[in-house]
Amino acid sequence: MSNNTYESDLPFDRLDSRRRRELAFKQYQERLHIPTEALQKLTDAFIEQLELGLREKQRSSLLMLPTMVDVLPQGQERGEYYSIDSGGKNIRLLYTRLGKDKHTVEEEKVEVSRVPVELHKVPVEELFDYIAKRMISWSETQGCAIAERQRPVLGFCCSFPVDHHALDAGSLIQWSKGFENPGGVGADPAKLLREAFQRQGVPRVHINALLNDTVATLAAARYLDGPDAIGSVIMGTGTNACYIEQLGNITKWMPRYRARTPDMVVNIEWPGFAAPELPVLEEDRALDAESNNPGQQQFEKMTAGLYTGDIARRLLLSLAEDGELFSGAVPERLRRMGAFTTTLMNLAAEDATPDLARVGAVLEEAFGLPAVQTKPDIRREVRQVCVLVRERSARLIAAMIAGILRHLHRDRPRTAGGELPRTVVAVDGGVFVRHADYRAEVLAGVRDILGDAVADRFSLKVVEAGSPFGAACVAAAADSYMRVAGGSLNFRPPVHKLPAVGQSR
C-alpha cells in the first residue's frame, strides 16, 4: 500500500478477509446501535402518539385502552382473597391473606397447571367449568376451600383481548394463543366465570375485578411499593405496558363515566407502535413479511422474545451470504425461520467463557455447525451480533419507559426546589426476569435519555409471576372501597374535578 493510499479507498474485495469482516461488523454495529439523540427523538414521537391516543380514536398507533381499573391497592388492604390468572396454556390459582401491617402478606398459596389441549376448542362453558372446578378442588387440598367461605372475593386476570366496560365486566374481543372456544367472543369473561362457579354449586363467589397481566403486575407492585409504582412493563414472548393516568386526560371515551377515583390504569398496547423515528432495518422488514401478521406490531417484532432471536439469525445470514462469516459457507439451517431462538441468542450474548464455548455449543445446536470447527474469531462475531440485537431491544424499551415518565412529569420536581420523585416501574416476563444484563441495558437507556438525576430516582422492580397476586390485590382494593363507600361495583360517586392535559397533579 503506497503512502498516499488509504484502506478506506480500496475496493472492499481487495481487503483481506479478516479486515473485511471487521468493516462489515462495524457497519452492522452502526445500524443496530441507537445513539442518545436518536433515542430522545423516538421518545418524543412516542409521547406525541400516547397523548394523541388519549384524545382520539384510530389516529395513533397506540390503542391507549382505558381498563376501568380506577381503584388500586394502597398497601393497607387486609383479609383473604382469591384470584385466577387465565390467558394462555397455563392457569394460575392463588389464595392470599393480606396482613394487618401495611404491605405485608401473611400467607400465600399458588398453583400453576396446564389447560388440557382438548379444552382449547370446546364450548366456552366447558372451558370455564374446568377453571372453576380446578379452583374449588385445589383450594380444598390447600386448606383454604373457596366453597366454605361465606363471601369469597376473587380477582380474574384474563389476558385475552377484552373490551372493558367496568372494573368487573367486559367483552372478549377475540381468542388467541390457540384457543377457539365457541361462544366466547363477545361474552363477558367475569360473567362466564360466575356462572361456572354457580354450576359447580358455589354461587357466592364474588368476582369484582377483571383485568389483564400488565395491570395485575402494576397492582402487585402498587401493593408492595405504594404510590411510587406508576406503571408496568411485560417483556417476554411479547411486550406491552400500562400506567396510571388522570381521568381528565382521557377525553376520547365515555364522557359520562362516573369514577371512584381521579385516576385510571391505561393499557398502552404498544406492540403496534410505529413512527418514522423507529430504526427499522431490512432484516426487520423481512421478518415482518414472513410473520403470521405482516404489517402489524412492528415495535413488538423489534423487541420481544418471540422475534429478537430471528432478527439475529437474519443478520448472521446476511453476513454469511456476503462471505464475511463461516468462510462464505451458509449452513442450511441458518436459512430457517425460528432456528435461532431468543433463548439461544441470550446464551450466546452472555457467554463469558475464555474461548466462548457456549457460543460454539449454540451454533452447533441451532445450525448444526460442529463446535470444534468454529474458530474463536467467528464465535466473537456471533456473540457481538447477539449483544447488538439485545441492546437495541433494551434501548427501544427504554425510550418508551422514558416517554411514560416524561408524560407523567416524573422527570421534574413536584415543587419548586424540591427533589425528584421516586419512580418504580414493575416488570415481568422472561426477558426481564431471567436476564439481569437486559435490565441493566434498559436502565442505561433511561439514564441516557433522562439524565443521571432522574435515573438515580428510578428503578425497575421485578414482580415475577405477579399477575395472580396483582389480581387478588385489585380485588382487595375494590372490596375495601365498597365497604367504605357502602355501595356495590355499580356505585359511582360524583365525578371528580380533574386537571386538563399538561397540568400537574
TrEMBL record:
UniProt xrefs under Gene3D superfamilies: 3.30.420.40, 3.40.367.20
Catalytic activity annotation: D-fructose + ATP = D-fructose 6-phosphate + ADP + H(+); a D-hexose + ATP = a D-hexose 6-phosphate + ADP + H(+)
Hexokinase N-terminal domain residues: 25-223
Example GO BP: glycolytic process
Source organism superkingdom: Eukaryota
MF terms (GO), sorted A to Z: ATP binding; D-glucose binding; fructokinase activity; glucokinase activity
Involved pathway(s): Carbohydrate degradation; glycolysis; D-glyceraldehyde 3-phosphate and glycerone phosphate from D-glucose: step 1/4; Carbohydrate metabolism; hexose metabolism
Hexokinase C-terminal domain residues: 232-476
Keyword Transferase listed: yes
Any one Gene Ontology cellular component term annotated for this protein: cytosol
Species whose genome carries this gene: Elliptochloris bilobata
Protein name: Phosphotransferase
EC number: 2.7.1.-
Family, similarity comment: Belongs to the hexokinase family.
Keyword line: ATP-binding, Glycolysis, Kinase, Nucleotide-binding, Transferase
